[in-house]
Amino acid sequence: MLSRSVLRRGALRCQFAQPVQKRYLAEAASGSFQYQTGDASGVKIASRDLAGPTTTLALVAKAGTRYQLLPGLTEGLEKFAFRGTERRSALRIVRESELLGAELESYHSRENLVIGAKFLRDDLPYFVELLAEVASSTKYLPHVYTEEVLPLIQLAHKKFLASPKAIALSSAHSLAFHRGLGTPVSPASSTPYTKYLAADTIEYFSQFAYAKPNFAIVANGAEHADLSKWVNEFFGGVSAKAPEDLLQSVRDKQSKYYGGEERIAHGSGNSLVLAFPGSSSFTGGFYKPEIQVLASLLGGKSNIKWSSGFSLLSKAAASPGTSVETKSAIYSDAGLLYINVNGTAENVSATAIEAVKTLHSIAGGKIAAEDIKKAKAAAKFQELETGQDISAGLELTGSGLIHGSKAYQLDETAKAIDGVTDAQVKAAAKTLLESKASVSAVGDLFLLPYAEDLGLKV
Amino acid sequence: MSQPSLAPFVLKRQWLTRWMKPLANWYANASGYRKLGLRADDLIPEENDTVLLALKRLPPKEAYDRVFRMRRAFQLSLSHQLLPKEEHTKPEEDVPYLTPLIQEIEAELKEREDLEAMVIEKPTVQKKHGPKLYH
């Protein structure tokens, strides 16, 4: 029988193992905005001791859809997180975390798989241990796959199919980067789970994802010395290196930009994506701050309530029901600057034509210096704001550590944005128009324009 | 549901095992299911959620073989025949293939029940005794 006293001891042991440390909001912590990086028993760690009673901890693994060996492996691995381990069942993990008042989460992006938890400061050792357990001793059982993981993957597939925007973005990425970064983030067809996925293939991939050189531990609101101590203690059992054959089969090539056009018919909603080669992450080798400024200059999404905002594209949007946004999607070694228009088919076409005109006018220098100044301020604010937003910072930092042992430092990116000149922005717009675009239209194809109609090269 | 069994008790005691083994073999043969080509685990009643779930968790090959054995046994029973001697289930083939799965599911259910009935106590942090005050 499972004795209750054992459970209590398991859940709360960590609190007794160390003197209770407390810090309240009003007290000053070491308070650095910068991440402190380090290495604990071969695992890269980064932490920043934000003042506050809670901690956010995450394991960021280089196992996003870009690196998966077979379609759907990342999705499967993500859904297998916190299932059952050698020591604890899934139910027990959930109940223990509930008792400690914590939140568990796992998600993935094109490059990273993030497994994380938010909890009270004192429970750090418990959750470091839990992450270590997930990484080293998850049981990949066939019945867990069929009973619990597979239905979630099917749901993710359905969700993807129901969203024209997600389809358009996925299509634009695959046009731009083909394989690697172009792999869809959510299962775009049923082939992953009808043909490739099984508990043992996911387990095989986990040996790559959870090998020490391929993941980093990032914490917000934890003392560096503490984190380092507990990672040292619990991550000893994680394998130091992925098997050689696995390392060779994972594609990790420099991304190359291709471009092209794709049109997909869809019954609910219209979405048009105009994408251009963009900037890599600050930690990658192809960082171009002017792309970020250009993105915020084009803008489209308002930060202010009840107003469409003052960015160029928000003025271009054909009607209040049409939404436009410009984003600079950054990845470790490449990026994509895209303009996404959603709304009724007529409005989407009209807005897209306006958007391309706007790009031409920026490239031609017909833009006020004030606008660029405003855009720089907005870009800087957005950058610092995302960095402060803990979850976004976690993934960027982890990814930076894995790819180049460099954390994502906001102060430096903000400085880079400050240094962008008007001429650089104009030149960037010009290069975009000269390069091949990736255009994907999803929705009512009778009305949505072709790239040629818009005057873009594909 | 896994069947109640004295086997673990007997197997722990070597002398008792030596006594009981011939008896057990005789009993298993005499009960007749081996002559129909069945295994002991084929006889577990499946009309409950636990066994149904365990049957779903069987690997495809095992599940197929199980259905084959049952249909063959049913056919034999209808035609009032037994399998030829060389096709009888051999004692070494008569392994529990379903019982471990059932036990695993029962353990899961038990754990769930235990966790539901859990009593939570807050840890009491021992206070340091301050200097005693005398009046």
Automatic annotation (TrEMBL), chain A:
Residues 47-178 form the Peptidase M16 N-terminal domain. GO terms for molecular function: hydrolase activity; metal ion binding. Its main location: mitochondrion. Residues 208-378 form the Peptidase M16 C-terminal domain. It comes from the Eukaryota. It is a peripheral membrane protein. InterPro entries: Metalloenz_LuxS/M16 (IPR011249), MPP/UQCRC_Complex (IPR050361), Pept_M16_N (IPR011765), Peptidase_M16_C (IPR007863). It is found in: Mitochondrion inner membrane. SUPFAM superfamilies: LuxS/MPP-like metallohydrolase. Keywords: Electron transport, Hydrolase, Membrane, Mitochondrion, Mitochondrion inner membrane, Respiratory chain, Transit peptide, Transport. Belongs to the peptidase M16 family. UQCRC2/QCR2 subfamily. This is Cytochrome b-c1 complex subunit 2, mitochondrial. It comes from Mytilinidion resinicola.
From TrEMBL, chain B:
GO terms for biological process: mitochondrial electron transport, ubiquinol to cytochrome c. It is found in: Mitochondrion inner membrane. Coiled coil: none annotated. SUPFAM superfamilies: 14 kDa protein of cytochrome bc1 complex (Ubiquinol-cytochrome c reductase) (SSF81524). It comes from the Eukaryota. Keywords: Electron transport, Membrane, Mitochondrion, Mitochondrion inner membrane, Respiratory chain, Transport. GO terms for cellular component: mitochondrial inner membrane; respiratory chain complex III. It holds the Pfam family UCR_14kD. It is a peripheral membrane protein. Transmembrane segments: none annotated. Belongs to the UQCRB/QCR7 family. This is Complex III subunit 7.
